[in-house]
Amino acid sequence: MSNQKKTKVKIMVGSTVYGFEDQISQIVAQLNTLGYEVLNSHYGSIKANPHLSNIDNCLNAVAECDLFLGIIRPYCGTGNIGDKNITFEEIKEAIRLKKPYWFLVHRDVVFARSLFKKIELKSGDEIVIKDNKLFDKRCIEIYEYVIQNHIPVTLRNGNWAQEFYRLDEMMVYINAQFIDRNFIDEVIKQTNSNDGK
């Protein structure tokens, strides 16, 4: 009988940070309490290779993690390199690598998506938001990517994005997903099996 402790499962909490650092800190603390090793840029637990860009370091963390928790907020943050947004690139990489993933989406993103679908300028011009610190339209693109808006509804799998407004609502979802280690072990086992490992 082995006395070795079970290896901690690594969960990455995506890099959507700016404007809600206090909430990220509480999410990380909760996941630590549940026994996970948390990778997160704000928390400082991502390996920062000085020879790589911020985006490459974050993508390496996605490759390193066992699970991925993405948070889609109205403001994507300042993590933009050229046309790329670090949060969005992390999400795309987690999905591409077939990591088990979960997503939380802020109510304002869901509302804005519905609102923009209903607004049409008489001139036909696109609506431009000048100050993206209030609302960044890219978050709608991220949300639509996560819910697989480009795929017919009957063919979608893994497109759940839990809407939230307050931290306590986020915590309900986080606890429901991650408190049961047997459930998580089964998800990881199924993921590995599907990848032929």
Describe the structure.
This protein is of the alpha/beta class. 42% of the residues lie in helices and 13% in strands. Strands 2-1-3-6-7 form a five-stranded parallel sheet, sandwiched between helices. A two-stranded antiparallel ribbon has the order 4-5. A hairpin with a 2-residue loop joins strand 4 (80-81) and strand 5 (84-85). The longest helix has 14 residues, at 181-194.
How would the blueprint of this fold be written?
Blueprint: E1 10-13, H1 21-33, E2 37-39, H2 54-64, E3 67-72, E4 80-81, E5 84-85, H3 86-96, E6 101-106, H4 107-118, H5 138-146, E7 162-164, H6 167-178, H7 181-194
Helix pairs in contact: 1-6, 2-3
Q: Which structural traits does this protein have?
A:
197 residues; 7 helices; alpha/beta
- What is the string of helix and strand elements? EHEHEEEHEHHEHH
- The averaged pLDDT comes out at 86
- Characterize the quaternary organization of these chains: single chain
Helix content: 40-55%
Number of helices: 7
Strand content: 5-15%
Cα end-to-end separation: 25 Å
The general outline is globular
Specify the biggest β-sheet. 5 strands, parallel
Q: What are the segments in which pLDDT stays under 50 over at least 5 consecutive residues?
A: none
Structural class: alpha/beta
Strand order of the largest sheet: 2-1-3-6-7
Rg calc: 18 Å
Overall number of strands:
7
Give a short synopsis of this structure.
With 197 residues, the chain is α/β, with parallel strands linked by helices.
